[in-house]
Amino acid sequence: MADVEHDVVIVGSGAGGGTLAWALSRHGIRVLVLEAGPQYDPLKDYRLARDDWEQSGFPFKPGSKGRYSFAPLQPLEPRYETLRTWTRSRGKIVSDDRRQASAYHHVRGVGGSTLHFTGEAHRMHPGAMNMRTRFGVAADWPLDYAELEPYYCEAERLIGVAGPATDQVRTRSEPYPLPPHQLSYASQQLQKGCRKLGLDWGPNSLAALSAPYDGRPPCNYCANCSRGCPRLDKGSVDITFIRKALASGFCTLRPESTVTRVVAGADDRVAAVHYLDAGGHARKLGARAVVIAAGAVETPRLLLLSENKHAPDGLANDSGQVGRHFMETVFWASTGLHPEPLGSHRGHPSDSICWDFNAPDAIPGVVGGCRFSPTIGEVDLTGPANYAYRVAGGWGKAGKVALRKVFGRVLSVGAIGENLPNPGSFVDLDPEEKDAAGLPLARIHSHLAATEVRRLEFMARTCREILEAAGVGEILEEYGSYDTFSATHVFGTCRMGNDARQSVVDRYCRSHRWRNLFVVDASVFPSSGGGESPSLTIEALAIRTADHMRELMQRREL
Ligand SMILES: Cc1cc2nc3c(=O)[nH]c(=O)nc-3n(C[C@H](O)[C@H](O)[C@H](O)COP(=O)(O)OP(=O)(O)OC[C@H]3O[C@@H](n4cnc5c(N)ncnc54)[C@H](O)[C@@H]3O)c2cc1C
Ligand code: SF4
After folding, report:
1. What's the rounded Cα separation, in Å, for the pair 391 and 377?
2. What are 519-533's pLDDT values in tens digits?
3. Distance, CA of 370 to CA of 333 (rounded, Å)
4. Which helix (H) or strand (E) holds 31?
5. Would you say the CB of residue 16 lies under 6 angstroms from ligand 1?
6. What do you get for the CA distance between the two ends of the chain, in Å?
7. N or C end of the chain, less CB within 10 A?
8. DSSP H stretches of helix in 272-391
């Protein structure tokens, strides 16, 4: 059943779906993007120019947060007391002896979770793409860094990524389109501290403009990217790939349209897509190809919801792999007070990074790497209100005096590490909880294995050492994944691979079973990398898949 107007239906408009929409429509392929969430207008919806900007985080609108549930998380052990989340004012945050579920942070909206993201634009460490062969863990990527490299370049060019000239590990065929951002004064203090420890701390590569680019102005260093960038310099997918896709004339975008089922046909093709439109009406359409790009939690849910007599265990789930191998953000942050005024509330919040432990064999005795960067944005210490009650303390005049004394003096260092898949971490359908349409919610099962906890110990220790070396006398707050599930990067639930028995999609993100079905989002990652932020890799994979789909269409194989 072919839709009269569109060649390809894309489910979701985030890093995967939005990029694919551009990469197909630029070649005259007609795409329809069905996006569950609303459209954002950065100038009207983001609040950074308002007096009360600090009172709320990202401005969620009706329908822009998905519902999901958690299975009970693992018990906590007294021997890992130093990995507990705590603040000076509140003490230990998780009083229970069980790991707490905070959130899978994401946005349903045109541009997906990149609306909320900080803009780190990373390439994978080439050595983290064959973890099975090297260390017997996770799975190998069915392609290598060299094959992905030209697509990284394309994504970086379209976005206007700003980054440093040299990278010893991630070889580049062309320089970043824009020079790196100057390090903020606070990041320079962290750099000095790292030098004392023999560590290299330098500019991060960012989807935030360091100079005017493609009609957009450069960053003004307001430090609040995760609240939504009203200046349009942050390279979220709505103002980069989707804007270009719509300008091509070959892309139709339908926000507030939630896909509820993809129908497997009697042969080797999916036949139709069912969705609820913005008015809540049930609709059905077909296309030459269907691409699911709903993110690593919703994509497996949709595939499992799409079971029928031709796909009795769920769509594309012949291997039983849909939903398995869920990987989350393994995170740590230590935050402390510096004796000198640093103005640390301004600057790009992730302007610098230390990659020294990013290689999968770089942490002594633990497989899987990590990286370190400033986390003033993540811990939300960029404005006076948070400083007043979390750092200064006190009331009235005394409170004001204390605030003046400490404002801008906080330094925060965070680490993100590899998350190796394990059988206890997966996504399935909740047997009880349902959405407004009566469909089961995605249920997240998360288990941190001993390797992850050991890696977290290293990350926590090193964050503290960096702060101390940078001059911080007193640590005020620490939080991490040991006692709290709080993930911004999620991956792995529709693994890509060459072996149809061990994976869901092939090396071009096409279903092993259904020839016109593709998955293009973070679900396809076979391993997480050692703390690299994922969006640029998702975008590079999407462009590569689009090229492949185009070839298949030209050969009339799709
Ligand atoms: C606070 C925060 C900070 C982050 N910082 C960074 C960073 O600095 N750098 C980086 O690289 N990454 C960062 N990330 C992660 C990054 O945003 C995600 O990894 C990335 O957006 C994932 O892309 P995706 O295509 O898999 O999913 P998403 O971008 O989440 O897109 C999925 C889309 O599918 C839609 N959808 C879901 N179900 C349906 C359905 N049934 N029908 C129709 N549409 C549907 C959703 O509404 C959503 O728009 C951050 C994330 C957060 C939340
Ligand atoms: S720091 Fe730069 S990229 Fe981030 S919100 Fe502010 S202006 Fe935008």
Report:
1. 15
2. 999 999 999 999 999
3. 13
4. strand 31-34
5. yes
6. 13
7. N
8. 295-305, 384-387
Structure-token pair, residue 260? 């509820």
Nearest to 222 by CA among 56, 41, 54, 59: 54
Locate the domains of the chain by residue range: 8-554
Tell me, in angstroms, the distance from the centre of ligand 1 to residue 107's CA: 6
Among the bound ligands, the one closest to the CA of 292: 1
CA-based nearest residue to 504, from 305, 299, 270:
299
Which residue from 535, 538, 545 has its CB within 8 A of the most atoms of ligand 1, so it is best to mutate?
535
Rg (CA), the chain: 23
* Ligand 1 centroid distance, CA of 129 (Å): 22
- Summarised one tens digit per residue, pLDDT across range 82-112 is 999 999 988 999 988 999 999 999 999 999 9
Question: E-strand spans in 109-250?
Answer: 202-203
Of 132, 20, 57, 64, the closest CA to residue 367 belongs to 132
Query: Do residues 178 and 326 make contact, with C-beta atoms less than 8 angstroms apart?
Result: no
CA 75–ligand 1 middle distance (angstroms)? 29
Does the C-beta of 219 come closer than 6 Å to ligand 2? yes
Q: Does the CB atom of residue 348 touch ligand 2 within 6 A? A: yes
Amino acid letter at 541? L
The set of residues, in sequence order, having a beta carbon less than 8 Å from that of 497 and lying 6+ positions away, is 139, 140, 142, 503, 505, 506, 507, 526
8-554: CATH number:
3.50.50.60
Ligand 1 close to Cβ of residue 455 (< 6 A): no
Give the whole-angstrom CA distance, residue 24 versus residue 19: 9
The torsion angles phi and psi of 360, rounded to 5 degrees, stand at: -65, -15
The tokens describing 106, both together, are: 């994401």
pLDDT digits (tens, 9 = 90+) for 294-346: 999 999 999 999 999 999 999 999 999 999 999 999 999 999 999 999 999 99
